[in-house]
């Protein structure tokens, strides 16, 4: 004999009353990002594995992107592929208006910062600039400026800013986005 649940499913399926689940693609928010190069040299800028372009000294590059992957600069010794992450400071943006920097163990070549575009840090500590340069990242023994490994979980947004090195600016993802500066 067939189990009762199987027969019930057959009846519902034949009458069209059994709902079918349709998977939906995950939608990452589209966020405006302004890339600024304050370095004395031009630099290739990446988002994840995508080369966004080369930014000239004192130049900018405006882009719109999702929240997957990190922003970073440089190239490998072959002159065309991604740089060695042991010498790169990366920045990331997530949903819920979080942003952060990730430093590797090593000697850094270029500092980087990320801040909400046209927003200033408020009295509570929201909307502050995240990141560090080669010297401050190396001296950051308490990891208040940058993570040593990318975060894998984020707290629920509250009325207080998160603990550093995680930063948050309410509404930044929906407003003008973020400015990422190389050689801040």
Describe the structure.
The structure is a single chain. It contains two helices and eleven strands, in the order H-E-E-E-E-E-E-E-E-E-H-E-E. It is mainly β and 184 residues long. It has a five-stranded mixed beta sheet. The chain has a three-stranded antiparallel beta sheet with strand order 3-2-5, with no helix packed on it. It has a three-stranded antiparallel beta sheet with strand order 6-7-10, with no helix packed on it. The chain starts with a helix and ends with a strand.
- Physical arrangement of strands within the biggest beta sheet: 4-1-11-8-9
CATH topology: Thaumatin
Computed CA radius of gyration, to the nearest angstrom: 22 Å
Give a quick account of the main beta sheet: strands, pairing sense, barrel closure: 5 strands, mixed
Which structural class is indicated by helix and strand composition?
A: mainly beta
Q: Which spans have pLDDT < 50 for at least 5 consecutive residues?
A: 1-26
| Structure summary, number of beta strands | 11
**CATH class category name:** Mainly Beta
Organism: Pterulicium gracile
Protein name: Thaumatin
Keywords: Signal
């Amino acid at each position: 004999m067939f189990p009762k649940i199987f027969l019930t499913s057959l009846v519902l399926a034949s009458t069209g009353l059994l709902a079918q689940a349709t998977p939906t693609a995950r939608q990452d928010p589209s966020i405006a990002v302004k890339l600024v190069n304050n370095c004395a040299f031009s630099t290739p800028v990446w988002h994840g594995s995508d080369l966004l372009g080369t930014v000239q000294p004192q130049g900018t590059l405006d882009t719109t992107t999702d929240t997957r992957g990190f922003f970073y600069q440089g190239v490998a010794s072959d002159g065309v592929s991604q740089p060695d992450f042991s010498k790169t400071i990366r920045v990331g943006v997530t949903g819920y208006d979080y942003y952060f920097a990730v430093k590797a163990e090593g000697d850094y070549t270029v500092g980087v910062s990320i801040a909400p575009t046209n927003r200033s840090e408020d009295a509570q500590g929201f909307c502050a600039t995240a990141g560090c340069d080669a010297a401050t990242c190396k001296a950051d023994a308490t990891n208040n400026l940058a993570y040593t490994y990318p975060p894998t979980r984020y707290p629920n947004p509250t009325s207080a800013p998160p603990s550093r090195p995680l930063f948050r600016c309410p509404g930044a993802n929906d407003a003008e986005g973020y400015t990422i500066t190389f050689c801040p």
